[in-house]
Specification:
- The complex is a heterodimer of chains A (about 300) and B (about 300).
- With about 300 residues, chain A is of the alpha/beta class.
- Chain A has two domains: about 35-60 and about 80-215, Rossmann fold (3-Layer(aba) Sandwich); about 225-300.
- Chain A is built from twelve helices and 13 strands.
- Chain A has helices at about 5-10, 55-60, 80-85, 105-115, 120-125, 140-155, 170-185, 200-205, 225-230, 240-245, 270-275, 285-295, and strands at about 15-25, 25-35, 40-45, 65-70, 90, 160-165, 190-195, 210-215, 215-225, 230-235, 250-255, 260-265, 280.
- In chain A, the strands form three sheets. Chain A has a six-stranded mixed beta sheet, with helices on both faces. Chain A has a four-stranded antiparallel beta sheet with strand order 11-12-10-13. Chain A has a three-stranded antiparallel beta sheet with strand order 2-1-4.
- The relative contact order of chain B is 0.12.
- Chain B has one domain.
- With about 300 residues, chain B is an all-alpha fold.
- The longest helix of chain B is centred in the middle third of the chain and has 40 residues, at about 155-190.
- Classes of the chains: A alpha/beta (about 300), B mainly alpha (about 300).
- The interface between A and B is medium-sized, with 39 and 28 residues.
Chain lengths: ~300, ~300
C-alpha cells in the first residue's frame, strides 16, 4: 500500500493511532502501538490480563495520558473529550452503575447528559431483559446490572462503541442476545465496535478484525479475512511431529482430526514438503492468541 | 445549560432521601419534645415582655427551628463536599460518570453549588416552614391556641422573610470567602482520601502556630482569621451599627427594625466583595479548582 492510499484510509478511519504509548510511571502499559479502525468494523481487542487493553481503551476516550498520534472520530481524545463522547459510547466496566440509582433515574440522567441517547430505545431494550425500570441498581444481580448498562449504552446513537469486557457476568443466553443486538441492530456498516473480551471463541464469528496486545505491544493487527490467508494450520499425525517442528511453526498442540493427531500453526505458507505431511485446517483465533502471546516458559510444545 | 441542570438533578436524585430525613427527623423530634416535655421560662422575663410574650415565643420558635435546620444542613453539606473528589469510588461508578460527555468543570461545579449554596438556602426555607409548626406547638402550650391565631403574622413573617433574604444572599457570599479552604479540603481528599480534611485542619492550625511562635510570622493566622471574619460578616451583620432591645416595651418595635436592618445589610455584604482581599480569594479558588479539574482529567484516581 502506498503513502497516499494509507493517508486516504487514515482520513476515513474512525480511530487512527500511531506510535501510541501510555506510561504509568516507569512502566509502559501501551508501548508504541499503531493501528486504524475504519468504519463498519467489529474489532476484537485481545490480550492477557495486564496486556494493556483497558489502558488502550481509556486512551481512546481521553481518560489516560497518551504519547504519540491519536485521533478518534477525528478528535483529540484528551482535548476534545466531551465532543468525542457525544459521538462515541464507552463501557469501561459493566458493573459500575451508581448503586443508589433506579434504572429510570439513569434513563432520565442519560437523556439530559447525552445528546445522542434515546430514552424510548433504552426502555425498549430493557423490555427484553429481566430488569425493571423501577429497580434500584443495588438490588440487581451482577448479570442484571450488566444487562441494564448494555441497554443504556446501546440506546446511544454513536459512531463508535468501545466495550471493555462487556459480557462479564452474563449467562450464555444473555451474551448471545447481546451479540445479536449488536450485529443486527447496531452495526450498520457506518458504525464500528471495539470490544475486548476473554471469551475469544464466542466472539470470533462476530469479528471483522482483531488487535492482539502482549505486554503493551501490538503483536497482531489484521482482518479475519487476511488472517485466514496469512496463517496456515496443519492437522497431522504424531509420527511427523519432528518434521513439523523443524519447519518452526508458531504453535504446536495436541488435537485435530484424529485421536492421536497434532496441529501446527505457521505464519505464512510452509514449504511443500511440510504441507504434504498434514491436512490444512482453519487456524482459530484462540490458537493464534496463544501462539502470539504465550510466555516462552509456558511453551506448550513439549510433547 | 441542560447538562448542568441534569447534573444538579443527579444530586437531588442521589440525596433526596437523606435530605428529607435531615428535615423531618429534627422537626418531628422538636414537635414531640415541645408537645410533651417541660419548658422552663424565666418569670421575670415573661413579666417584662408582657403582651408581647406570645409573639416572642413565635419569633424564638421560628428563629430556633430555622437556625437548627440551617446548621444541620450546612454541616452535612460541608461533610459531603469534603469527600466530593472520592465519592463514586466506593461503587466504582466514577467510571460510569467519566464515560459520559460532561466536562470536568461542570461535573465538579454542580455538586459544589448544590451542597454549598442550594442545600443551606433550602434548609433556611424549610426551617421557616417548620418553625411555623413549632411555634404553634409552643404558643399553644404556653399561652393558648387562640393566641397563635392572633399573632401579628404580618410583622413576624415580614421579619422572617427579611432574615431569609439576608441569609439567602449571605450564604453564597460567605461560601465565596471560604472557598479556598473548602476546595483545599476537596483537593486533599482527592490526594489523601480520608486523611485530606484532618491533614488540612492540622496543617492550618499547626502551620499558623509554628509560623507565629517559631518564626514570628503572624500573617498566616491573621489571614485565616480574616477569611473567617469576612465570611461571618457576609453571612449576617455586615454593618457596624445594629439595634438593641432594652426592655419588653421595645420588643413590639423590634420586628419592623429587623426588617429594615436585614434588608439594609444586603448591599454592604455584597460590597465586601469589592476588595483586594476578595480578588486574592478568587484567584486562589480558581487555582485550586483548576487542580481539581486536572486531577479528574488524569483519571480521577481510578487505576488504569
Amino acid at each position: 500500500m502506498n503513502a497516499p492510499q494509507e493517508q486516504a484510509i487514515s482520513a476515513s478511519a474512525l480511530v487512527h493511532a500511531k506510535g501510541l504509548t501510555v506510561r504509568y510511571g516507569a512502566k509502559r502499559a501501551v508501548d508504541d502501538v499503531s493501528f486504524t479502525i475504519p468504519k463498519g468494523r467489529v474489532v476484537g481487542l485481545l490480550g492477557h490480563n495486564g496486556a494493556g487493553k483497558t489502558t488502550l481503551m481509556k486512551a481512546l476516550v481521553g481518560l489516560a495520558n497518551a504519547e504519540g498520534e491519536l485521533r478518534v472520530l477525528g478528535k483529540h481524545p484528551k482535548r476534545d473529550r466531551v465532543a468525542l463522547l457525544q459521538s462515541a459510547c464507552y463501557i469501561p466496566d459493566v458493573a459500575i452503575l451508581p448503586r443508589w440509582a433506579r434504572v429510570d433515574d439513569l434513563i432520565t440522567l442519560m437523556s439530559g447528559l447525552h445528546p445522542s441517547f434515546s430514552a424510548e430505545r433504552a426502555k425498549g431494550l430493557l423490555k427484553r431483559t429481566s430488569v425493571g425500570l423501577r429497580d434500584r441498581v443495588k438490588v440487581l444481580s451482577k448479570g442484571m446490572v450488566v444487562q441494564a448498562h448494555l441497554a443504556l449504552v446501546a440506546a446511544i446513537d454513536a459512531r463508535l462503541m468501545i466495550l471493555d469486557e462487556p459480557t462479564l457476568g452474563l449467562d450464555v443466553l444473555s451474551r448471545k442476545s447481546f451479540y445479536e443486538m449488536l450485529i443486527d441492530e447496531w452495526c450498520d456498516g457506518e458504525r464500528s465496535v471495539l470490544i475486548s473480551t476473554h471469551q475469544v471463541e464466542e466472539i470470533e464469528t462476530l469479528l471483522s478484525d482483531v488487535l492482539m496486545l502482549n505486554e503493551g505491544k501490538l503483536v497482531l493487527s489484521i482482518s479475519l479475512e487476511d488472517m485466514d490467508r496469512r496463517f496456515v494450520a496443519l492437522s497431522h499425525d504424531a509420527s511427523v511431529a519432528d518434521e513439523m517442528a523443524a519447519a518452526h511453526p508458531l504453535l504446536r498442540y495436541r488435537g485435530g482430526a484424529g485421536r492421536d493427531s497434532r496441529t501446527s500453526v505457521f505464519d505464512g505458507t510452509p514449504p511443500d514438503n511440510v504441507l504434504s505431511l498434514g491436512q490444512r485446517v482453519r487456524p482459530s483465533l484462540v490458537d493464534l492468541f496463544v501462539a502470539l502471546t504465550r510466555k516462552p516458559e509456558l511453551d506448550r510444545q513439549h510433547f | 445549560m441542560k447538562t448542568f441542570n441534569t447534573l444538579l438533578l443527579r444530586e437531588w436524585m442521589q440525596h433526596r432521601f437523606g435530605w428529607a430525613m435531615l428535615v423531618l427527623i429534627p422537626l418531628t423530634l422538636a414537635v414531640l419534645l415541645l408537645s410533651v416535655g417541660q419548658i422552663q421560662l424565666d418569670s421575670q422575663t415573661v413579666e417584662e415582655v408582657g403582651a408581647f410574650f406570645p409573639t416572642m415565643l413565635a419569633a424564638i420558635s421560628l428563629a430556633g427551628t430555622t437556625g437548627l435546620l440551617f446548621v444541620l444542613g450546612t454541616v452535612v453539606s460541608l461533610f459531603l463536599i469534603s469527600g466530593l473528589a472520592r465519592r463514586d469510588h466506593a461503587d466504582r461508578s466514577v467510571e460510569f460518570w467519566l464515560s459520559l460527555p460532561t466536562s470536568h468543570a461542570q461535573s465538579l461545579a454542580a455538586p459544589l453549588l448544590t451542597h454549598l449554596v442550594l442545600v443551606p438556602v433550602a434548609a433556611l426555607a424549610l426551617g421557616i416552614a417548620g418553625g411555623v409548626a413549632v411555634s404553634f406547638v409552643v404558643v399553644s402550650r404556653l399561652v393558648d391556641v387562640g393566641a397563635w391565631f392572633t399573632l401579628p403574622w404580618g410583622q413576624l413573617l415580614g421579619a422572617t422573610l427579611a432574615t431569609f433574604a439576608r441569609l439567602a444572599v449571605g450564604v453564597p457570599l460567605a461560601i465565596l470567602w471560604l472557598l479556598p479552604l473548602i476546595l483545599a479540603a476537596v483537593l486533599l481528599g482527592a490526594w489523601l482520601k480520608r486523611w485530606g480534611v484532618p491533614v488540612l485542619l492540622l496543617g492550618l492550625s499547626l502551620g499558623a502556630t509554628v509560623a507565629q511562635q517559631v518564626f514570628g510570622l503572624a500573617w498566616p493566622a491573621r489571614q485565616l482569621a480574616y477569611l473567617a471574619l469576612q465570611a461571618g460578616r457576609s453571612l449576617i451583620h455586615t454593618q457596624q451599627q445594629g439595634f438593641v432591645v432594652e426592655n419588653g416595651n421595645e420588643m413590639a418595635e423590634a420586628l419592623p427594625k429587623v426588617v429594615s436592618f436585614m434588608l439594609g445589610d444586603i448591599a454592604p455584604a455584597i460590597g465586601l466583595l469589592l476588595s483586594p482581599g476578595f480578588l486574592a480569594v478568587l484567584a486562589l479558588s480558581a487555582g485550586l479548582f483548576w487542580l481539581l479539574i486536572d486531577w479528574r482529567r488524569r483519571g480521577a484516581g481510578v487505576a488504569g
